[in-house]
Amino acid sequence: MGKKNFVKAITSRDDDFAQWYTDVCRKAELMDYSDAKGFIIYRPYGYALWENMKNYLDGEFKKTGHENVYMPLVIPESLFMKEAEHVEGFAPETAIITIGGNEELQERLIIRPTSEVLFCNHYSKIIESHRDLPKKYNQWCSVVRWEKTTRPFLRGSEFLWQEGHTVHSNEQEAKKEALDILKIYENLGKEILAIPFITGLKTEKEKFAGAVDTYTIEALMHDNKALQSGTTHYLGTGFSKAFDIKFQDKDGKVKPVYQTSWGVSTRLIGAVIMVHGDDSGLVLPPRLAPVQVDIIPIMQHVEGVLEKAEEIKEKLQKLNIRVKLDETDKSPGWKFSESEMKGTPIRIELGPRDLKENKVVVVKRYNREKETISIDDIVDYIPKTLENIHQEMYNQALENVMKNTREAYDYETFKKIMNEKSGYVKMMWCGDDACETKIKEDTKATARCMPFDQTPIGEECPVCKRKAKHVVFYAKAY
Amino acid sequence: MGKKNFVKAITSRDDDFAQWYTDVCRKAELMDYSDAKGFIIYRPYGYALWENMKNYLDGEFKKTGHENVYMPLVIPESLFMKEAEHVEGFAPETAIITIGGNEELQERLIIRPTSEVLFCNHYSKIIESHRDLPKKYNQWCSVVRWEKTTRPFLRGSEFLWQEGHTVHSNEQEAKKEALDILKIYENLGKEILAIPFITGLKTEKEKFAGAVDTYTIEALMHDNKALQSGTTHYLGTGFSKAFDIKFQDKDGKVKPVYQTSWGVSTRLIGAVIMVHGDDSGLVLPPRLAPVQVDIIPIMQHVEGVLEKAEEIKEKLQKLNIRVKLDETDKSPGWKFSESEMKGTPIRIELGPRDLKENKVVVVKRYNREKETISIDDIVDYIPKTLENIHQEMYNQALENVMKNTREAYDYETFKKIMNEKSGYVKMMWCGDDACETKIKEDTKATARCMPFDQTPIGEECPVCKRKAKHVVFYAKAY
């Protein structure tokens, strides 16, 4: 478990993607398993990724007028039962406290699987007038959903997330909120994760239990399967009627509020691993990386090497670059492997010969490109290169999405693509659950979303031949 | 529950301190009760206080080489039972999950009341060599302790906190860690909360279940009772032996690690309320305040008033001052009351007459001092005044501590002070549990700490007349 296994090769991505994924999670020290099945330990390096995502999102939420709160961990069972669809969606996977302070509880307490009912109950008590609206609350917490099969970051009994819950005086404003947040999520992909998300509306079958509309961000993994990476929900007045959240409007009338909820979770860490990672381990986009530059001295006992390395480190730190100098007694090769496993965007190698020539070797993690540059140029070269790497990684991921997005005009072609290549398939749909179900049974693919660009690519649903109503992106998904 | 109750006066501090406290918690919109007894809702304003404390501490922890992690919410019962003293301390107040995914669990899961055992279990798996040490981990989370009587922020079934858990190769380094963190906590008081803490070592009776030494920060409330506001523990090798956390040292020998743990919680919000608050509500020190300056326009319909108010707001924002302009249709008097209830350090009043004279009225919340200053001076005056307020509030709190710290050389005097005045009483102690117990029975006061300055103030323990060993601060406490 210690450092000694570090350089041991991990499973190849193309041999066994699932095993590769788990290897990266463990060997890059992102997580560890705990003694409670399905509950993982977020180790410092994994948690730092979450913190960087969190800092970006929290800033964007606050800029747009959202406030953080903290609701209780537990929901009394009677409260949990108030909104029927919601209960149906979540009851089967709840964890329940039945004992507190050595006594059987009179009412059982559900560990929050999501907090709609807690927010609704609170809102019903604090909202009276249009003057109290909108309320735009968010919370950072963990939730518990009892899962039979779990995978680090992707599906677990406990995961970290943010959940936003907002209340508005009218439909239009609430719908806009759900879309505004979707944009923030999309920008997280563009600006921080270097992941291009496909966005759109979920079908009835795939939407959130209790939502009118669910919007989604979907990412394509290296194995060509899609990962639902975040959702925003326009809830209409379903919850506000169930929980009696009313307000007196300017016209003096008492009306139910319109609501949204939305969340992204540590599942995004899984997305980053599976979009960018390779056979040497994790590959991190620079803005997300806890360490952006690893400086690795060669023959560090030779006079001047460590001093120069330290000097470079300090110069880069002054530019607010997150840099680490590895002065441990491990071999350079070992340090290279560690740096690669952890996905540090840039590695700087510096040995006695380089020192003499006033040069360093710079290696980009994502494409292994090596360059020799003058030490004098480092302060210009590194920040620029980090920015370029971000853009190049985003472009590479985008190219991969485009290459693996196909259109199908007949169902046979659809099935063939899903069988042989997977990826996204764009196809028309009649809007009937039955066709969606048939597609899933035949191919395991599901409707990932109905994209905002609904320009038709055909007139009929290739499955049932009836009139088509929607453009849909299908994919096999996690 | 809405805005309409805002101006209603709250209970006076000196009439009923407990009721005053609850009134402030509710009326300043810091929290609300949830439907699960003992679990509170941290409303935006209350949560913002916690976020500001958290930002300061997180920065200090990281500067000193600590890393954040996240351990599971739950502890399998068998794991929980490993360290005997620890179990004895926490078992009576645990909440237990017995059902997951509609099935009775084979092993019950304890909701973490604190996470020593989770950290220890993890450390035992990842530590092998002196190269792996030290490990200095911290986590921000909530914990659950089943409490019979609860009070917002002070004692609840769930509270937010940070818990640090560190592992070292030697005793000296671990002991230093416990003291270094105590210093960070003390500085939080000095730099952010404007609270002077008394620090020192806990007695055997008062220390943490499983610790060798517990250090504490104690604050004195307006009612002259002490509040334990945070603790750091030197754990020695008790946990490492129970959990088998060993490392191979440089000399080749396998040894147990030395550990610490430490935490502060949302209880600190309670301290801020009870140290600084007054009969008009909360009083916040400027560095902690979510809003530092409230600008309240008078006769805001008069041309120019709102424009000038907006101009002042923007000028202050450019100085990174957290400022709010209240443009709502409430009356100025109402807005003053709200601003006072929420404890905003400075209020700026601006009406048509002021505008004509190019002046504003500035009111300091903590001492209600009013000044009229030229609008041209605002950008100089406000930042300077915020800094002064911080220092003045700290000094005022310190004076209160000094005024209410007395020395007792005989037990009758001790009892008299505790009965009549409360506050801290400094007295010598023989070191015997029996005397500590007698003091508690006689006066309800407990040993808050043995201060670092152990200059004796007498030769014998006034309770039993035997030889005195320690200087102790006693107080009635929350």
What report would you give on this structure?
- 2 copies of one chain form a homodimer.
- The first copy, chain A, is of the alpha+beta class and 478 residues long.
- The first copy, chain A, has 3 domains: 15-276, BirA Bifunctional Protein, domain 2 (2-Layer Sandwich); 293-385, Anticodon-binding domain (Rossmann fold, 3-Layer(aba) Sandwich); 405-475, Translation Initiation Factor IF3 (2-Layer Sandwich).
- Helices cover 35% and strands 27% of the residues of chain A.
- Chain A contains 14 helices and 23 strands.
- Chain A has helices at 17-27, 44-63, 77-80, 84-90, 116-126, 171-193, 238-243, 267-276, 305-318, 332-341, 352-357, 378-403, 411-420, 433-443; strands at residues 31-33, 40-42, 67-68, 74-76, 95-100, 103-111, 135-144, 158-168, 198-201, 213-220, 226-236, 246-248, 254-256, 258-265, 293-297, 323-325, 346-350, 359-364, 370-374, 405-407, 424-429, 446-451, 470-475.
- Chain A has an 11-stranded mixed β-sheet, with helices on both faces. Chain A has a 5-stranded mixed β-sheet with strand order 16-15-17-18-19, with helices on both faces. A 3-stranded antiparallel β-sheet of chain A has the order 4-6-5.
- In chain A, a hairpin with a 2-residue loop joins strand 5 (95-100) and strand 6 (103-111).
- In chain A, helix 2 (44-63) crosses helix 6.
- The first copy, chain A, starts with 16 loop residues before the first helix and ends with a strand.
- Mean pLDDT of chain A is 96; it is low at 1-6.
- Chains A and B meet through strand 2, helix 2, strand 3, strand 4 and strand 5 of A and strand 2, helix 2, strand 3, strand 4 and strand 5 of B.
- Strand 5 of chain A pairs antiparallel with strand 5 (95-100) of chain B, so a sheet runs across the interface.
